[in-house]
Amino acid sequence: MSLSTLVAGVEARASSVSADAVSTPTGLALSLPSIGTSGLADVLPVLALGAWFKHAACLLADGRAQFGPNLGDLDNADACRAVEPAALALLAQAAAPVRAIAHDLHPDFHSTRVACALAARLGVPAIGVQHHHAHVGAVLAEHGRFDARPVLGLALDGVGLGTDGQAWGGELLWVAGGEFVRLGHLRPLRLPGGD
Question: Which residues form the Carbamoyltransferase Kae1-like domain (predicted)?
Fold first, then answer.
């Protein structure tokens, strides 16, 4: 099963999320580098909260990506209420305290607000990650690429907030580990409401 398939999971369209779903995460073994071969080992474990659609949290620790349940889209009040308990369930499984909490760049996403609040409570940094950079990073992880060798990545999944505060879509990115450069993109379109 691919990482992207696992993250997407089964779409949760129900009006509520059960307590059992929040407490039964799924894991995926990763071939993480040994300590000293990259900066990755220096920041683990890390908790990442998903964006808006098909939200799921992920704990990266001990050579595994441990996923919480797919809570569905965060336009659903029940899904929003389940974000923090699902994140806390993953944190409870960590053998060591997390060193950072990652989240989408968009400040208005419920998951971003939960991530920032949890990070403040735990005294760790909250790290905003550009949406399309995260997609390219997921593909690299799926293929065991945890080094900083550069790649070109094309993300065509829709819209994500860019580092310039503008809506981005259809990105061609040069990615080297945690760094990226936006090389190209689809031309912006005017949308009703100015979004």
Answer: 153-195
Tokens of 68: 């919480």
Structural domains of the chain ordered from first start: 3-129 (3.30.420.360), 149-194 (3.30.420.560)
Q: State mean pLDDT over 141-146.
A: 82
- Give mean pLDDT, residues 73-83: 96
DSSP three-state, residue 191: coil
Closest CA to 58 of 12, 11, 111, 121: 111
Exposure letters 60-96 (e unless 16+ CB within 10 A, then b) = bbbebbbbbbbbbbbebeebbebbbebbebbbeebee
Q: What is the 3-state secondary structure (H, E, C) of 74-89?
A: CCCHHHHHHHHHHHHH
Residues present in the chain in total: 195
